[in-house]
Amino acid sequence: MLGRIDAGRFLGGAMPLDLAGAVRAIDGKIGAPLGLTRAAAAAGIVRLADVKMALAVRSITTERGLDQRDYALLSYGGGEPLHAVAIARELDIPRVVVPPSPSTFSAWGMLATDLRHDLVRTVLVPLERADAAWAEARYEEMRREIATILPGAGVPLLHRAVDLRYLGQEHTVTIALEALGDWTTLRARFDAAHERAYGYAASEVDVQLLNLRLSVVFPLDQPRFPALERRTTGAVPFETRKIYSSLAGDSIEYRVYQREALRAGDQLNGPAAIEEPGTTTIIDAADTLSIENHGCLEIQLNAAGAMGGIGGSEHRSPR
């Protein structure tokens, strides 16, 4: 209804969408009961989804003391590229990256990642009563347990860590322990990490060792991606169509491109939509898109078009 997805080209045309059914549902369930036009009801649904996802991003950035403006938003999945630019603009994230085949990116990650097994052993002892020798004995027990689960997988990399907390507190901090010789510095490292995470350290309070963590990683050969070919001519849209723009508050003309026709070095200006079988990437007016050497879409947001909202520009102090 908003023009963001072409009903006849969903999944490359393999699964036509029921536009008439969607219209009946929006009009009957939302538009008529709330006194909204069809476009306003549909746009409201999209806006609500954008805000909910922006809040989820905020929970792992701002709420952990990270400034979102220092990062790019990696967008993957079948639906995320439809929302990524709006989410980034909501949070003042300046850049969005959409990898090739984003709808299967998670599955690809499962196949490309190293073989790994994690084991956690709860011990619940005061930190002052544990030492490196005590920890080494328990880590060795854990290593042997993992060896029975992943036998003969090669030479592993071992990563140790501990979960610590102040006695009587609920929240824990995980501290990496790459060498057991680091054991003597655990208390000081925990105090410093706790202050970074929660804003205070309590050096006078006893520390409890909650968990020992052991990750065993077997490195695997990683796939190599060929560079995308370049060309001297610019990309050409295969159509233009009306798509609802949350910035304009109305449907405007968008240039629509096939992703498979884009080449490394191509530069596009919004408003534009990039279609591929698994998803559609929406680019707002005044934003720019470039294709990097391996086919990632890199979208640079225009700060002048920021919508505000949670973490929006009018709520943020200047840098």
Features:
single chain, 319 residues, alpha+beta, Dna Ligase, domain 1, five-stranded mixed β-sheet, four-stranded antiparallel β-sheet, 28% helix, disordered C terminus
Structure report:
The chain is α+β, with helices and mostly antiparallel strands and 319 residues long. The chain has 2 domains: 10-107 and 229-315, no CATH class; 114-218, Dna Ligase, domain 1, CATH 3.30.1490. The protein has helices at 19-34, 38-59, 80-90, 105-112, 132-149, 186-198, and strands spanning 72-74, 95-98, 115-126, 157-166, 173-176, 207-218, 239-245, 250-258, 267-269, 272-276, 279-283, 288-291, 297-300. The strands form 3 sheets. It has a 5-stranded mixed beta sheet, covered by helices on one side. The protein has a 4-stranded antiparallel beta sheet with strand order 3-6-4-5, with helices on one face. Strands 7-8-10-11 form a 4-stranded mixed beta sheet. The longest helix has 22 residues, at 38-59.
Number of domains: 2
Number of helices: 6
Rg, please? Answer: 25 Å
**Strand arrangement in the largest pleated sheet:** 1-2-13-12-9
Number of E-type strands: 13
The chain-level structural class is: alpha+beta
Model regions low in confidence, pLDDT < 50 over at least 5 residues: 308-319
Anisotropy-based shape? elongated
What is the topological layout?
Blueprint: H1 19-34, H2 38-59, E1 72-74, H3 80-90, E2 95-98, H4 105-112, E3 115-126, H5 132-149, E4 157-166, E5 173-176, H6 186-198, E6 207-218, E7 239-245, E8 250-258, E9 267-269, E10 272-276, E11 279-283, E12 288-291, E13 297-300
Parallel strand pairs: 1-2, 8-10
Antiparallel strand pairs: 2-13, 3-6, 4-5, 4-6, 7-8, 9-12, 10-11, 12-13
